[in-house]
């Protein structure tokens, strides 16, 4: 068996921590998953020992390069025997490791009666507080190993985790406090309130009947993962190329950053050109639809049809925008007339609203556009997540705008996203960008093509 050991720095600190609960990470690329799997090997030779590592859903466990794939790289060197059908590892009849999900809050009750010496959460912010607390009650042991919990995480300011680890985070900047990383605190829960102290004795003095748990948070970033940076030096460049919101979270480890106006799009990102290259451009027109006509008493969403074209150097041009507030019939006429003006070479994306009515309406539009290359699209993520790929390319200078009267409306809405009154242009840009780059993004979970 090759010698398996953690890297110096935060990974070593995480694997040598003694607290009941240790949370590791706070940024991407710090070797979090690898460390969590290494922790599972500590007691693999103890009869009756078991560890369960949770992801929010089973797809995340099985994803390429995810928990299961990584465990196959590591556990085979520790005489582990895999059972892929049940996502389990057996270590010569002694310890066991299982990967599982808690997709819904009620799924936690599937573990009623379980005794799990080591409970692990891979990406803790994906789980609810109720799930976490319930699994604390399943964290029991009769094999001689003291029960404990280990978790990895990336920043999410709206998650309960942000408040849970607030002592380790600078309230103003949102970044971890270096001098507190790896330090231990204590807590207990009383009447659904989490009560903290600097020592077990401090809490017992407050309430002699309490049973405090110790907690530590170990901060890390990609710069702590020397092995990754040596094997894949381009990974750091990928993190630096992210839009500012994700870059602050995943590269810098910022727990305070929120989506705000100007964070995703700024007009300075876009070069306005008077003409686009001739010949060989791939073109799409994407429709984000609304169906309410504007009156004096309302300001409904817009129907927006945005045309994007990409040249041989993968530079994208926004070449036309249709933006209307019309009734369903007016929207249908606009889509049909625009298709005839664009011509059959321009691929058309129609966003499909949820529910059976949305399916029926999308089917009607496809039939109406016979003779054109039409694709119906279902949005499967929130607006901010869908906008990230286009935002990243815009900041890199890879999206240019054809000079036209609609430019000001385009820039104004993008700069105000996600806080503006309307986001229909952003939705159309996100959908058109993803459709234009279908081969690169159809597996990203952002849209279903």
Explain what this protein looks like in three dimensions.
- The chain is built from 16 helices and 18 strands.
- It is an alpha/beta fold.
- The protein folds into two domains: 10-244, P-loop containing nucleotide triphosphate hydrolases (Rossmann fold); 264-448, Nucleotidyltransferase, domain 5 (2-Layer Sandwich).
- The strands form two sheets. Strands 3-4-5-2-6-7-1-10-8-9 form a ten-stranded mixed β-sheet, sandwiched between helices.
Name a few traits of the molecule.
single chain, 449 residues, alpha/beta, Rossmann fold, Nucleotidyltransferase, domain 5, 2 domains, ten-stranded mixed beta sheet, eight-stranded mixed beta sheet, 16 helices, 31% helix, disordered C terminus, plasmid, Phage_terminase_lsu-like_C, P-loop_NTPase, Terminase-like family protein, Terminase_6C
> Which residues sit in consecutive blocks of at least 5 with pLDDT less than 50?
442-449
The name of the CATH architecture of the largest domain is: 3-Layer(aba) Sandwich
What is the CATH topology of the largest domain? Answer: Rossmann fold
What is the gyration radius calculated from CA atoms? 26 Å
Number of domains: 2
CATH superfamily of the largest domain: P-loop containing nucleotide triphosphate hydrolases
Structural class: alpha/beta
Q: Could you estimate the helical fraction of the residues in percent?
A: 25-40%
- Portion of residues in beta strands equals 15-25%
Question: Strand order, biggest sheet?
Answer: 3-4-5-2-6-7-1-10-8-9
The profile of the biggest β sheet is: 10 strands, mixed
């Amino acid at each position: 068996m090759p010698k398996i050991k953690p890297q110096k720095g935060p990974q070593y600190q995480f694997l040598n921590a003694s607290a009941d609960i240790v949370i590791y990470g706070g940024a991407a690329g710090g070797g979090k998953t690898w460390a969590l799997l290494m922790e599972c090997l500590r007691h693999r030779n103890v009869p009756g020992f078991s560890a369960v590592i949770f992801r929010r859903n089973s797809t995340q466990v099985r994803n390429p390069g995810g928990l299961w794939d990584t465990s196959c790289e590591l556990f085979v060197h520790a005489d582990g025997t895999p059972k892929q059908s049940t996502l389990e590892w057996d270590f010569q009849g002694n310890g066991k490791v299982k990967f599982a999900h808690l997709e819904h809050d009620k799924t936690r009750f599937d573990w009623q009666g379980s005794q799990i010496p080591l409970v692990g959460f891979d990406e803790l912010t994906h789980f609810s507080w109720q799930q976490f607390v319930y699994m604390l009650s399943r964290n029991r042991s009769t094999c001689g190993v003291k029960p404990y919990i280990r978790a990895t995480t990336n920043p999410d300011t709206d998650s309960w985790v942000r408040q849970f680890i607030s002592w380790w985070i600078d309230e103003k900047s949102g970044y971890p406090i270096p001098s507190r990383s790896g330090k231990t605190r204590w807590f207990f829960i009383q009447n659904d309130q989490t009560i903290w102290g600097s020592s077990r004795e401090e809490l017992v003095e407050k309430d002699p009947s309490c049973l405090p748990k110790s907690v530590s948070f170990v901060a890390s970033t990609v710069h702590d993962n020397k092995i990754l940076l040596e094997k894949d030096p381009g990974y750091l460049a990928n993190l630096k190329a992210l839009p500012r919101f994700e870059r602050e979270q995943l590269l810098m480890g910022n727990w305070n950053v929120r989506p705000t106006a100007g964070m995703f799009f700024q007009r300075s990102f876009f070069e306005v050109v008077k003409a686009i290259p001739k010949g060989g451009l791939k073109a799409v027109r994407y429709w984000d639809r609304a169906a309410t006509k504007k009156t004096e008493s309302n300001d409904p969403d817009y129907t927006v049809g945005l045309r994007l074209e990409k040249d041989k150097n993968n530079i994208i041009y926004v070449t036309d925008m249709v933006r209307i507030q019309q009734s369903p019939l007016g929207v249908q006429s606009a889509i049909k007339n625009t298709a005839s003006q664009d011509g059959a070479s321009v691929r058309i994306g129609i966003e499909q609203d949820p529910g059976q009515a949305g399916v029926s309406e999308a089917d009607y539009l496809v039939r109406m556009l016979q003779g054109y290359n039409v694709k119906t699209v279902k949005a499967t993520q929130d607006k901010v997540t869908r906008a990230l790929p286009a935002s990243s390319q815009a900041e890199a200078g890879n999206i240019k705008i054809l000079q036209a009267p609609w430019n000001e409306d385009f820039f104004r809405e993008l700069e105000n996203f996600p806080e503006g009154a309307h986001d229909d242009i952003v939705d159309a840009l996100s959908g058109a960008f993803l459709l234009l780059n279908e081969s690169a993004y159809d597996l990203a979970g952002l849209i279903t093509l």
